[in-house]
Amino acid sequence: MRVKTSGFVLFVTVIASVGGLLFGYSTGIISGALLFMGQEFHLTVFDEELIVSILLVGALIGAVIGGTFADRLGRRKTLFITIVLFILGTLFIIMGDSLFPFLLGRFVIGLAVGIVSLTVPLYISEMSPSESRGALVSMNQLAIVMGVLLAYNINYLFSSITEWRWMFGFGLIPIFAMLVGLCFIPETPSWLAAHGKNSLAQAILRKIHRNQQKEESVIEPKKESPQEIVRWSHLLEKNIRPALVVGVMLSAFQQLTGINTVFYYAPKIFQNVGFASASSAIFATLGIGLINAIMTLVALWLLDIVGRRFLLLLGMSGMVVSLGFLGSVFFIHTALVKTIAVVSIMMYVSFFAISIGPIAWLIMAEIYPMGVRGRAMGIASFSNWTCNFLISITFLTLVDLIGSSGTFWLYAFIGILAIWFIWKKVPETKGKTLEEIQEFWKKRQ
Q1: Could you tell me the residue ranges of all domains in the chain?
Q2: Which end of the chain, N or C, is less surrounded by CB atoms within 10 Å?
């Protein structure tokens, strides 16, 4: 029997998920803006690569410092910090008259993206009943997807007047919407309880859960002192280290199986298999964004029904098969080659969207103990952004060295390694409270 989620939980989830929308918007808006910036700043190829990659550098740093902020200051205050960074970065971009302030703005926004990428799923996880935590936390992934789609549409809207600053400036609307929303949501009960504020934690839990017995079971007991729970060395303890490895490896596999080569280079891939014009390749790319959003919605429905492990194994298997077909396309010389390429990429994105896309972030938010949860998620997020950067910067080089087929088959082989790792190491967390998940790791020692 499914548990009905309270309006309060839905409200705080939606407010926090705006951070995911900003994540997606900030990474997607640059694709259209670059076309018009080049005309104003006379960009070289290196300049363009720097503009794209500097956000990822900021995100790498933000992922690490964000974990410390979340553990020391709390999840809600950390989200406020990201809003300040989003505002500053956007102002640098839209008010600058040279490349330097633009790069500075992109770096600052990257810091915000790195912090928000771990803090939003962490916040939602600690505000969710165990029975619906999977769907609620994965609303963040849906928000990221919708942010990318919004960016594509804003790019198209302002392309006719070539106002690239307005493309970035539009982002101030959801930024200020989130700022207002954060004023009306509380800190998480788990963080409050771990810092000795049990009465306030209980008051928030009464809004989350309908029966008092369930409320008390969600608060993790404060067995450690505040000084002890903020140490980085705790990540190496026997009952935490296996969970840390699971989070780091799932984050790595999410990127190393090549998903961002599709999101960043889809038009180029489509042109390589025979799409004659840029417009036709871009139109085909819009379909990828749409199917990604639809299948993410399907994942929200399935996560708390069939569980995380099953979807991970199913989705990763489908990704491997799809990558195998995509690699084979470049050896096919028939009229069906474009159709096979589009179908292969659509299937690949679909399987990603129902599995490791949302589930990597979900499991990261579930498996770590309260005292080090923010820092552990910071390390896992750092792994994610590092692999994102490596895949993005090596894709075209790999295509030159081993060909398009060899590149996609390499990603498929990494997917096979991911299937083995999931089968051996990743536990099922569906329906378990955060405290019960911690007991699982302790029993494994």
Answers
A1: 7-185, 232-445
A2: N
Q: How confident is the model at residue 340 (pLDDT cuts 50, 70, 90)?
A: confident
Cβ-contact 88, 397 below 8 angstroms? no
**Span 60-85, average pLDDT:** 93
Q: Do domains 7-185 and 232-445 have the same CATH topology?
A: yes
pLDDT of residue 210: 61
Q: What is the mean pLDDT of residues 215-219?
A: 44
In the numeric block, the tokens 């579930």 are attached to 366
8 Å CB contact between 103 and 50 = yes
- Going by pLDDT thresholds of 50, 70 and 90, the confidence category of residue 280 is low
Residues in the chain: 445
Rounded-to-integer distance, Cα 308 and Cα 414, Å: 20
In this predicted structure, what is the pLDDT of residue 108? 97
Question: Looking at the domain 232-445, which fold is it?
Answer: Growth Hormone; Chain: A; (1.20.1250)
Q: How far apart are CA 242 and CA 248, in angstroms?
A: 10
CA 1 → CA 4, 132, 171, 208, 253, distances in Å? 9, 11, 40, 18, 33
User: Cβ neighbours of residue 235 under 8 Å, at least 6 residues apart?
Assistant: 241, 244, 372, 375, 376, 379
Give yes or no for a contact between 372 and 435, defined as CB atoms under 8 angstroms apart. no
**Which is more confidently placed, 39 or 95?**
95
Residues 7-185, CATH architecture: Up-down Bundle (1.20)
| Spatial separation of the C-alpha atoms in residues 208 and 434, rounded to whole Å | 15
| Tokens coding 364 | 């990261």
Q: What is the DSSP letter of 226?
A: T
Tell me the C-alpha distance between 144 and 154, whole Å. 15
Q: How far is CA 188 from CA 13, 31, 83, 191, 378, in A?
A: 12, 36, 18, 6, 18
How many CA atoms lie within 13 Å of 198's alpha carbon, on the beta-carbon side? 9
Residues 6+ apart with CB under 8 A from 176: none
SS3 helix, strand, coil % of the chain, rounded to 5?
Answer: 80, 0, 20
